[in-house]
Design goal:
Chain lengths: 309, 530
């Protein structure tokens, strides 16, 4: 089995809202897969279909070689889920909730549990209603990480964690990866995605807009170029792949798409280059471009400029 | 005062959020009073007929206990008596839930935190909730007064009636304002207030059965009753009402000023670091979540049963004098001892109250689902049927336990007074338990709508129960054909210990309950969750 999750053409509507509109997603065994997209893009909905909580209108979803709706109960033995907004039973202590969830899956290693509690600095004796948001999240994380599930499905698992705990989380996920577990990680925290994910899928309006490794995605995004030439700047406006061009005498600034970089540099070298600064896109720029409504980049102006600065 | 900043905004928020609930709950009370008043005149057109009702009622301990005595034989006097109990309890519950929902429940959900960080003073939520509740009760009082005057009743009596209903609402709004400050859980806060309400109503009931006027003064329900609309029209019982409200409100503000947001004054306790060995299945979790509520209901109804067992003997003596009651007993299935007639009637009534437990416990499924806690369980290797089935098994067993508590309490105390302990216990326990199938039919209706129409589950389930109660009114007051009672599962069960035990209707009800539950579970199995 090489794919832990394979979803294609998934459609799910709620009344008149089309939450998923032909979504595709493939998660390979053993990888940490980032699942990104702006608010309301359909990440949680996809995850809830995969968990058998929602039934898709059409399209196919396979999870661990089973049907997430029909085989829900058996598949759930092999996965663990952490929701983005954890609610616990007000009268149960965190430790009780962790034990219950672990035992329902057939028991959990007490050592591993103790180690995780210690690492996440979680007091298991507090009652569900007295935990802060971050601590509720930790309860769910400890329960998931101390299970021996093959697949972890995490929906914004760190949205309430402080930076220290964020680091602990990243360290724990790296460990899981080394153990060969597969992780589907929905997140808005780009540093976390960069540190953890082997591949990412970016979705928007219920559709997958990009999928690949971060390097591949970077290539699809533009690099910013600042150069001082030996002579006047040649006519570049309108050249394919060149955006946001600014020129003043011998100097120019612009952004250039990955596949147009070579052509642009040849043009500049013809005139002679005195100095050149090339900046690969930052992660933020890369994602913003995919998140925005016009992903082609040609119409992008104000917001990009703000981010570049 | 800066602690009150933002109260106006919060009032608008409550009115917007509860724009359906408030008119429905409070409107229901007003409709009940006005509607019954207009139908009583038709049901008992002659002074003679009304005097007969007055005499039988005032000599009938079950009626004295449920509602209290009739003070005046006019049509208005009869109408006031007929609705007094239900109207007071209903408006008290409406006010109580309104206040808890707008204070502690908001805080628990963390929404107050969101507001508290903006420009909202620390007493604003409490003030807004109390203001809305007090105003809703006042409006209800005025609507009732106008509605009664519209039927040509005297203005003063109509107003006193409206105020006596609203007074019950005011007291319990204030009490809820206080209990909301005490604990950090809205369920507990509502539970404390509702328990206090039950106890205070029982105090009033005892006072009326024992004809003890000083006991009556221990309960606000006694005070409002002594306003005697159309039978003296007293306003002075509003003085103790106002006094109590002032005390409760002052207490609420004092605590509100001291405690932290989100906390109560009863400190949160630490729980165990590890789960007990038994907590390993979704059924064990369901039991853990439901056992507190079940215990409270069982204790309350065992105690209530014991109280009923205690008055049964004096009730029986008075019953000999009551012709109407003998008629009722005969309607329920024949002769027997007078005490049995009393028990048959109260068991019939109490089984409908215990149904509230069964519905509430069934709707726990919905609460688990909307809070997202069901999701945590169902994304483990637990099927939906097993999860829901666990809760429903507890509902079925729990309803039986509460009914058994009622029968046991009655049998124990009554047995001690007649000397036949074993005989009374087994008879009354049996009589209570035969009511289980009818209770479970209502629970099954709740399970059905939870599966099919989860958003409307609570409304439909409680409406179904209310319909069973309304049918009773319709038969009694509108002279509707008693055969319409046949749709009520409560009327289908033989009225033990008076009637003979017939097993067929019980089996039929059990089959219906099973069928409805099965359809509900099948629907749950197929639908989206969350
Ligand atoms: N139960 C529901 N009923 C109606 N609409 C829903 C429901 N669940 C989700 N939606 C809608 O579906 C769309 C996708 O929501 P979803 O929660 O999947 O987004 P998301 O990508 O997880 O967003 P976020 O980053 O904010 O968590 C949204 O427009 C949302 O309003
Ligand atoms: Mg989401």
């Amino acid at each position: 089995m090489s794919n832990m999750i394979s979803v294609s053409g998934l459609i799910k509507t709620f009344g008149r809202t089309r939450a998923l509109d032909g979504l595709d997603l493939t998660v390979r065994a053993g990888e940490v897969h980032g699942f990104l997209g702006p608010n309301g893009a359909g990440k949680s909905t996809t995850i809830r279909v995969l968990l058998g909580l929602l039934r898709q209108d059409s399209g196919t979803a396979r999870l661990l070689d089973g049907d997430p709706w029909r085989d829900a109960t058996t598949l759930h033995r092999r996965l663990a889920y952490v929701p983005g907004d954890v609610t616990l039973w007000p009268t149960l202590s965190g430790g009780e909730a962790i034990d219950l969830l672990g035992r329902m899956r057939g028991g959990l290693a007490p050592q591993r549990r103790a180690e995780l509690l210690d690492r996440f600095e979680l007091d298991p004796r507090k009652k569900g209603r007295t935990y802060s948001k971050g601590n509720r999240q930790k309860v769910a994380l400890v329960a998931a990480l101390s299970s021996d599930a093959d697949l972890l499905i995490l929906d914004e698992p760190t949205s309430g964690l402080d930076p220290l705990m964020e680091a602990v989380f990243q360290e724990s996920i790296q460990e899981e990866r080394r153990k060969g577990r597969t992780v589907l990680l929905s997140s808005h925290i780009l540093a976390e995605v960069e540190a953890l994910c082997d591949r990412v899928s970016i979705i928007r309006h219920g559709r997958t807009v990009e999928t690949g490794t971060l390097t591949e995605l970077r290539h699809l995004t533009s690099t910013s170029i600042t150069a001082e030439l030996a002579g006047p700047v040649p006519q570049l406006a309108g050249s394919a792949g060149v955006h946001d061009l600014w020129t003043q005498g011998n100097r120019l600034r612009c952004r250039v798409d990955g596949d147009a970089l070579d052509t642009l540099l040849r043009e500049l070298v013809k005139v002679g280059v005195r100095s050149l600064v090339s900046q690969p896109p930052t992660l933020e720029e890369m994602f913003l471009r995919h998140y925005e409504d016009d992903p082609s980049g040609t119409g992008a102006t104000g917001k990009h400029a703000a981010v570049q600065r | 005062m800066t602690t009150l900043t933002g109260t106006g905004g919060l009032i608008r928020l409550i009115l917007r959020r509860d724009r359906v609930r408030i008119p429905v709950w409070f409107g229901l009370v007003a409709m009940l009073v006005i509607g019954i008043a207009s139908s009583v005149a038709g049901a008992y057109p002659t002074e003679e007929a009304r005097l007969a009702v007055l005499h039988t009622t005032n000599g009938d301990p079950t009626q004295l206990m449920m509602i209290g005595p009739i003070y005046d034989s006019s049509a208005a006097g009869l109408a006031v008596w007929r609705v007094r109990g239900q109207a007071a309890l209903l408006i008290a519950l409406a006010s109580l839930f309104l206040v808890i929902r707008s204070t502690r429940a908001e805080e628990e959900a963390g929404r107050s935190e969101l507001l508290g960080s903006t420009v909202v003073g620390r007493h604003a939520a409490l003030t807004a909730a109390l203001t809305v509740a007090f105003a809703a009760n006042l409006v209800t009082a005025l609507v009732v007064a106008l509605g009664l005057m519209g039927q040509g009743l005297p203005a003063r009596g109509s107003l006193v009636m409206g105020l006596s209903v609203a007074a019950a609402g005011w007291v319990f709004a204030a009490l809820a304002g206080l209990t909301a400050q005490l604990t950090d859980s809205s369920r507990t806060a509502a539970g404390i207030a509702a328990t206090a309400m039950g106890v205070l109503y029982a105090v009033r009931a005892t006072a009326d059965v024992e004809k003890s006027s000083w006991v009556a003064w221990l309960s606000p329900f006694g005070w409002t009753q002594h306003m005697r609309p159309f039978a003296g029209d007293h306003l002075w019982p509003l003085l103790p009402v106002i006094g109590l409200i002032s005390l409760l409100v002052a207490g609420a503000y004092r605590i509100s000023a001291r405690r932290d947001l989100g906390a109560g004054i009863l400190p949160p306790r630490l729980g165990p670091a590890d789960a007990a060995p038994g907590l390993r299945t979704s059924l064990a979790l369901a039991w853990r979540l439901q056992r507190g509520t079940l215990l409270a209901w069982t204790v309350a109804f065992t105690a209530f049963g014991a109280g009923l067992g205690g008055v049964a003997r004096s009730a029986a003596e008075q019953l000999n004098a009551s012709e109407a009651l003998r008629g009722l007993i005969e309607r329920m299935g024949g002769g027997g001892r007078p005490a049995d007639g009393f028990f048959a009637f109260v068991i019939y009534l109490m089984s409908q109250v215990i149904t509230v437990y069964a519905i509430q416990a069934t709707l726990r499924l919905r609460a688990e689902e909307t809070s997202g806690r069901a999701e945590i369980i169902l994304t483990g290797p637990v099927g939906r049927l097993r999860w829901a089935g666990g809760h429903l098994a507890i509902v079925a067993a729990g309803s039986g336990i509460v009914l058994a508590g009622l029968g046991l309490g009655m049998g124990l105390v009554h047995g001690l007074s007649t000397g036949d302990l074993g005989g009374e216990i087994s008879q009354l326990l049996g009589a209570s338990l035969t009511r289980l199938p009818s209770v479970l039919v209502l629970a099954a209706i709740s399970a059905l709508v939870y599966g099919l129409l989860p958003r409307l589950a609570a409304i439909i389930a409680y409406t179904a129960l209310a319909l069973c109660l309304v049918l009773e009114f319709a038969v009694e007051l509108l002279h509707a054909d008693p055969s319409i009672l046949k749709v009520s599962p409560f009327a289908q069960t033989p009225g033990l210990p008076v009637a003979e035990l017939t097993v067929t209707p019980l089996i039929l009800l059990a089959v219906i309950a099973t069928g409805l539950t099965a359809v509900g579970l099948a629907a749950l199995h197929r639908r989206d969750l969350g």
